[in-house]
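Q: Given only this backbone (129 positions), what sequence would you predict?
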């Protein structure tokens, strides 16, 4: 077999390999906590993490360094299906402008859930799954 023939075979084999998207290491490590600080971090969930299951914990809270980025919607999390560890919404500063948990509609299981300082939260129906 010549070098050219071998090169062609290797090139063709590459076209038949399926594209496999591995979850981000942060999603598959049960010892890690993913921190989403502010609305921009929530909005970029799919682009930043590309996973439906978080084996560790997920914390969502206000970015005290950027008050203009208040969390007002969890819609960016619609691809999320499960959090094996803790799902914590709000920390010391809470999530003062969050009124609904829409965006968590596809979450079917969490290890534990804690909502803190969400004074305007009036609708938790998204957790019905």
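A: Predicted residues:
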């Amino acid at each position: 077999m010549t070098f050219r023939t071998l090169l062609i075979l290797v090139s063709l084999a590459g076209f038949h390999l399926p594209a496999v998207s591995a979850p981000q290491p942060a999603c598959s490590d049960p010892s890690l906590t993913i921190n989403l600080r502010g609305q921009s971090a929530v909005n970029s969930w799919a682009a930043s993490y590309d996973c439906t299951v978080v084996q560790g914990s997920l914390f969502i809270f206000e970015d005290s360094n950027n008050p203009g980025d208040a969390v007002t919607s969890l819609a960016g999390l619609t691809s999320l299906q499960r959090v094996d560890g803790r799902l914590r919404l709000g920390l010391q500063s809470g999530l003062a402008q969050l009124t609904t948990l829409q965006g968590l509609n596809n979450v079917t299981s969490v290890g534990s859930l804690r909502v803190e300082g969400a004074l305007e939260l009036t609708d938790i129906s998204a957790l019905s799954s």
